[in-house]
Each structure stands twice: as C-alpha cells, then as structure tokens.
Amino acid sequence: MLASGIALGVLAGLALGGRLGRLAELRIAWWPLLAVAVALRLAAPALGDLAAAGYVLAFAAIVVIAAVDRTLPGMTAIAIGATANLVVVAANGGMPVDAAAIAAAGASMPSDRLHIPLDASTRLAALADFIPVPVIRGVYSPGDVLLAVGGFWLPFTWLRRP
Q1: 3-class DSSP assignment, residue 69
Q2: I want to staple 139 with a disulfide (CB 3.0 to 4.6 A). Which of 3, 50, 101, 156 is the partner?
Q3: CA 76 to CA 90: how far, in whole Å?
Q4: How many CB atoms lie within 10 A of CB 107?
Q5: What's the DSSP call for residue 28?
Q6: How far are the Cα atoms of 1, 3, 85, 125, 137 from residue 149, in angstroms, in the given order?
Q7: What percent of the chain has pLDDT over 90?
Q8: Pick from 18, 160, 155, 131: which is nearest to 78 by CA?
Q9: Residues with Cβ within 8 Å of residue 41, at least 6 apart in sequence
Q10: Residue 73: Cβ-neighbour burial (10 angstroms; 0-12, 13-18, 19+)
Q11: CA gap 117, 99 in Å, rounded
C-alpha cells in the first residue's frame, strides 16, 4: 500500500499544479536503508519459513527511517502503520488475513508463508488484514491504510509546496 499511496500522491500533486522537479529537493535520511527495506519487503513472501522475519525486519527499518524523518509530511502515519504491521506479524508469525474479508473482496488467500488465516487464536486481530477492497480484489490492515495515507501525503504536499 505504501507504493500505491506514493504513486497516487505524485499523480494528485501534479494534477493540482505541483511540480515534479520539487521531488529532487526531498531528502530522506538513510535512504539506502529504505531501499534495502523495500527490497526485503518485496522479497519476504519468497523467503519461505523466514518470510515473517523478513517482513518484520523490513518494517523495523521503515519505522526507524520514518522516525528519523518525522518532520516530513506523512512520516508519522508511515511510522505508525509500519509499527502496526510489524507488531501483528511478530505476534502471530505472519500476517493474519480474515476469510470473510477475502470473500468480500473477491480475492483468494495468498499462498505464501507470510499470510496466515485469522482465527480465534490470532493475537492483535484488530491490526490484521480485514479491510476488503473489492475494486482491486485485496484485503488490507489498518497499518496498510496508514502506510498508504502517509505515502500519499508526502509527495502530494511536497510537490505542491511553495
């Protein structure tokens, strides 16, 4: 959700008169760590039994970077969203996904080792993937939503700043 939020933030910022060149002025502290975190997050589902550990490490790095850059617009939402996802995955050994939400979204349960069924034993179920988004056939967590909001807000406001 972070990447889609960023893309939509750039498009909305440009549509409302922002200038793409302003992104060149954006400074993210420790950006190489961010690149590693994003790569690890994308690779996590393919890590087999280490998928949850990869996911937790990726989001821990994102939390650190967002905390360091907390004065940038949207970074607080990114830090909170990444923390929520990190905590629920660490507590359950994977991201719990609600079967009813999957059905409502017209999706299917991911077949990787990162996602696990939400059930009565799930810890912190309020942070799990339970928000159906039928238009894209996906199910998201509150952390994902915060990541998308923060990801949108950062380029949107940066492109439009004076």
Answers
A1: coil
A2: 101
A3: 21
A4: 17
A5: -
A6: 9, 11, 15, 21, 19
A7: 86
A8: 155
A9: 54, 55, 58, 59, 62
A10: middle
A11: 7
- Per-residue DSSP letter, 50: G
Helix (H, G, I), strand (E, B) or coil at 113: coil
The answer to whether residue 81 scores a pLDDT higher than 90 is: yes
pTM higher than 0.70: yes
At 41, list the tokens: 């997050």
Residue 2: the pLDDT is: 83
* Length of the chain, in residues: 162
At residue 93, what is the residue type? G
* Contacts of 36 by beta carbon, 8 Å cutoff, 6+ apart: 61
**Does the pLDDT value for residue 1 go beyond 90?**
no
**Residue with structure tokens 């959700």?**
1
C-alpha 136/C-alpha 131 separation (Å) is 12
DSSP reduced 3-state for 134? helix
